C-alpha cells in the first residue's frame, strides 16, 4: 500500500492520473473500485466538516469499513506517540489511517509496513486532497490546466491550501499569483498589487478564509472592514472576466472574505469543489490501494 502524504512530491503523471481518475469516477466512465474487507480509520486532531465527511463517504463508496477515533478521547492524550497509535491500529488489522493534525509533517519518519497514511492536512504545510479536488474542479470547467492564470487571494500567510496549490499548479504549468494585504503575505511568492486593476486577467480566482484560529490575536477587528478592502466584494466580482470561475476551499465566512450576494452566481464553483472532494478522495483510496504510475 502507498502513503498519500504530499501531493507536491508526486510526479506530474501521477497527479494528472489522480485528477482524471477522480473525474472519471464522477462522470461514470470508470467504475468505482471495491475494497471489501479493507479497514480505514479517521483521526482528525483539528476540526473538519468537508474533508472528514467526504473521506468517510469515499470509504463507504469503495465498500471498505471505517472507524473514527474521537481525538478528544484518544490515547494520544495519555502520551502515546503517533507511531505507537498507528502500530496499535495495524495490530487491529487496519489498512490505513486518514490524519489531520496541526503539526507540520507529522508523518515524517513514521513508516508502518503494509499500511497507508493519508494526509488530510498538516498545519500550514500541505492539504493534498484539497489540492486534488481544486485541480479536478478547474479541469472540469476549463478542460485543461496548462497555462491557466490563477489568482489566490486572502490569508496566504496561514494557508496550507494556498502554498500547496501554488507549488503543484506551478509544477503543472499554470501561472499562479497571490494577492494579500501586507499582514497576510508569506515571503517568496509573486503578488499582484491591485485587485481592481488586475483581477480581470485571471481564469480562476480562489478566495481564502481569514484563519483566525491561527492568528496571534483571536479578537480580530479586521473582519468588519475586510470585504470592501481586501475580499471578493460584489463590486470586485463584477470586474471578473466573464469566463472566470471562483473557488474557495471552505469553510467560508459570508461577507468577510466573500460577498454573500454573489454565492448563487453561475461562476461560483464552491459546492462543485465539495462534490469533487468526494471523487478526489475515492481516487486517493484507489491510489493507496493500487498505486499509480
Ligand atoms: N477545506 C477544508 O479542509 O474544509 P474542512 O476544514 O471542513 O475539512
Q: Explain this structure to me?
A:
The chain is an alpha/beta fold and 293 residues long. It has helices at residues 12-27, 50-61, 82-91, 128-142, 160-171, 195-198, 223-230, 234-237, 270-290, and strands spanning 39-44, 65-69, 96-101, 116-122, 149-153, 175-179, 204-207, 245-247. The protein has a 4-stranded parallel β-sheet with strand order 2-1-3-4, with helices on both faces. A 4-stranded parallel β-sheet has the order 6-5-7-8, with helices on one face. Helix 2 links the parallel strand 1 and strand 2 (65-69). Helix 4 crosses helix 5 (160-171). 41% of the residues are buried. It binds phosphoric acid mono(formamide)ester (CP). The site of phosphoric acid mono(formamide)ester has 8 residues, from helix 2. Phosphoric acid mono(formamide)ester (CP) binds at residues 48-51, 130, 249-251.
Key words describing this protein structure:
293 residues; alpha/beta; 4-stranded parallel sheet; binds phosphoric acid mono(formamide)ester
List the helices and strands and how they pair.
Blueprint lengths: L11 H16 L11 E6 L5 H12 L3 E5 L12 H10 L4 E6 L14 E7 L5 H15 L6 E5 L6 H12 L3 E5 L15 H4 L5 E4 L15 H8 L3 H4 L7 E3 L22 H21 L3
Parallel strand pairs: 1-2, 1-3, 3-4, 5-6, 5-7, 7-8
Helix pairs in contact: 1-4, 1-9, 2-9, 4-5, 4-9
Bound molecules: phosphoric acid mono(formamide)ester.
Amino acid at each position: 500500500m502507498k502513503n498519500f502524504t504530499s501531493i507536491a512530491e508526486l510526479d506530474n503523471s501521477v497527479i494528472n492520473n489522480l485528477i482524471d481518475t477522480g473525474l472519471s469516477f464522477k462522470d461514470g466512465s470508470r467504475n468505482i473500485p471495491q475494497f471489501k474487507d479493507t479497514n480505514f480509520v479517521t483521526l482528525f486532531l483539528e476540526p473538519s466538516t468537508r474533508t472528514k465527511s467526504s473521506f468517510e463517504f469515499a470509504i463507504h463508496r469503495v465498500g471498505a469499513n471505517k472507524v473514527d477515533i474521537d481525538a478528544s478521547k484518544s490515547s494520544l492524550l495519555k502520551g502515546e506517540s503517533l507511531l505507537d497509535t498507528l502500530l496499535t491500529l495495524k495490530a487491529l488489522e487496519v489498512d490505513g489511517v486518514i490524519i489531520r493534525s496541526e503539526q507540520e509533517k507529522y508523518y515524517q519518519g513514521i513508516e508502518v509496513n503494509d499500511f497507508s497514511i493519508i494526509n488530510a492536512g498538516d498545519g500550514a504545510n500541505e492539504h493534498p486532497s484539497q489540492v486534488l479536488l481544486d485541480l479536478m474542479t478547474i479541469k472540469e470547467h476549463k478542460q485543461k490546466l496548462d497555462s491557466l492564470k490563477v489568482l489566490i487571494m486572502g490569508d496566504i500567510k496561514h494557508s496550507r491550501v494556498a502554498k500547496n496549490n501554488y507549488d503543484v499548479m506551478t509544477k503543472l504549468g499554470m501561472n499562479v499569483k497571490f494577492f494579500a494585504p501586507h499582514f497576510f503575505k508569506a515571503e517568496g511568492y509573486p503578488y499582484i498589487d491591485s485587485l481592481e486593476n488586475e483581477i480581470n486577467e485571471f481564469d480562476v480566482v480562489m478566495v481564502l478564509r481569514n484563519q483566525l484560529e491561527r492568528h496571534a490575536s483571536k479578537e480580530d477587528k479586521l473582519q468588519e472592514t475586510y470585504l470592501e478592502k481586501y475580499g471578493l466584494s460584489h463590486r470586485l466580482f463584477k470586474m471578473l472576466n466573464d469566463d472566470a470561475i471562483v473557488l474557495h476551499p471552505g469553510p467560508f465566512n459570508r461577507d468577510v472574505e466573500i460577498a454573500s450576494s454573489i454565492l448563487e452566481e453561475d461562476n461560483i464553483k464552491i459546492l462543485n469543489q465539495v462534490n469533487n472532494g468526494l471523487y478526489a478522495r475515492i481516487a486517493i483510496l484507489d491510489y493507496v490501494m493500487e498505486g499509480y504510475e
